[in-house]
Amino acid sequence: MKHHGKHLITILSKMKDVCVSKYPNKILKIDDTPKYKKTHKEILKRLIELSLEFEIPREALFSKKMIKQLIEWAWLDEYDQTNLPVLIQSWRFDIVYKSVRNILEQN
After folding, report:
1. What is the pLDDT of residues 20-41, one digit of tens each?
2. Is 63 exposed, middle or buried (CB count within 10 Å of its CB: 0-12, 13-18, 19+)?
3. CA separation for the pair 13, 3 (Å, rounded)
4. How far apart are alpha carbons 50 and 36 in whole angstroms?
């Protein structure tokens, strides 16, 4: 506000004259969609099973952030092989990707 206050006030005062129907569409975050929540839940369940099966602590195998990154990679980046998410890099690839690939493809 200190540097651009007058300019912001001018913009806001002009917005009073704009009809609500002309507002841009609300941007929906990927993690707010029902499809995402279902997929995240299924992947989380499978990763918990894998951590028990391979006796790997959950904290070492995955995090919520890693799951989100994996889903975004599959849905938004369309499986870009040059930018693999952490959850399927290195030693995790053989354990994780083969187990969750069908979940990603179903949803």
Report:
1. 888 888 887 888 888 999 999 9
2. middle
3. 18
4. 21
Taking CA atoms, 32 is separated from 38, 41, 51, 56, 78, in Å, by 11, 13, 27, 30, 19
Cα 91-94-100 angle, rounded to 5 deg = 120
Q: What pLDDT shows up at residue 91?
A: 93
Closest CA relative to residue 105, chosen from 50, 45, 44, 39? 39
Residue 100 amino acid letter: V
HSE at residue 29, side-chain half, CA atoms within 13 A, is 4
Apex 100 CA angle, 63 and 91, nearest 5 = 65
Query: 17: which 2 tokens?
Result: 């004259």
Start-to-end CA span in the chain (Å): 44
Q: Which helix (H) or strand (E) holds 98?
A: helix 98-106
